[in-house]
Amino acid sequence: MKRVAMVMVALVAGGLSACGSSEGGSGGGKGPVVVGASGSLTGPLSPIGALLQKGYAQRVKEVNDAGGLDVGGTKRKIELKQLDNKSEPNLAAQQARTLVTREEAVALLGSNTPPINNAIGAMAETLRVPLVMGLNPIRAFLSGSKSGWNYAWDQFFDERQATTVQYETANLTQTNKKVALFTDNEQDGIAQGRLWTENAKKYGYTIAYHAKFPVGTTDFSSFIRRTKASGADIVIAQMIPPDGVALWKQFKALSYSPKLAFCEKCGTNSGWGAALKSSAEGTSGLGNWLPQPDRPETKQVMETLGKQIPNAHDLGLAVSGYTAASILFDAIQAAGSTEPEAINEAIGKTDKMYPVGRVKFTDNAYGVEVPMLQWQNGNGVQVYPAGGDAKLQTPVAGLK
Known about the structure:
It is built from twelve helices and 19 strands. It is of the alpha/beta class. It folds into two domains: about 5-160 and about 290-365, Rossmann fold; about 160-290 and about 370-400, Response regulator (Rossmann fold). It has an eight-stranded mixed β-sheet, with helices on both faces. Strands 11-10-12-13 form a four-stranded parallel β-sheet, sandwiched between helices. The protein starts with 5 loop residues before the first strand and ends in a 16-residue tail after the last strand.
């Protein structure tokens, strides 16, 4: 296997510096505790992967600036070693093995989307090393292991709840209640497409048309013509960012102007606005974090990551990484050990308030509450639940 380029984030008191593996490994002594991450720093998922890494780096910096983790009575710094999986699941799995077997990582932090996170999770199970992740919808995560997960832990939204928010948001305005679904063939596209179909009747909506397609589709014209013929006022899509951008451009070119349009995963980072400019206006999508001032670390997150990342969609992605790192580091301290089995056992006992809520795992998963954001004036603003930043705007301004 070719050695891939590594981004090693080694945080020491006062700042960041690149360095090699810790002397004598990370399992004992007073050297740094090595944690590994295979991230989508390039490729189609890079707008998400880069933000996840910012969350990891911020939490590592905070721990190290405070003197490190107390591991069995000894303060030890965290050394985060990160590889670029180029948004490729097979490469991500290989890198997880490299991080553990060659770089002596005692635990792993996740990447994004089910194909990549589940691939890393399968390797973590094989190596019997704990992995804490976010940005992996829970139903898709659970379906990734027929025998259940033992070493992989996920904190993100549960699709059973998240696939009702689009209808609850749509209830804020007048439509003909006809919906066109656009879902790709990744695990989350399949799971959420099924749930949106099941939930439609409950909320008084009809699925007028459902377009299903493989990841990497570039020509959506036939699907759009069928959508227009169906008379759907509402579009709900689940797809990777480049495919979503192509779909929206073709909506515009073929003069399809829905009253509401949701683009999940595709439209939930600042790359959406950068790629589509004014055509992004009015796109709705789930936020990745619902800030609550009464939660510990919320003020800290807003004063650090919040100042670095002004876009609400992007900030939520970084907070997911920050939270995953916090859960893992707390578990290492609780275990008082860098032995993977001890860390894994401590993760399973997690019952603590974090920026995303009180995390307590059931079947190795925790469901995060998420808001609905809409692109208005170049940023994602909360339109549901009520009490957010703004009111829902219709029809979709960027597609008029």
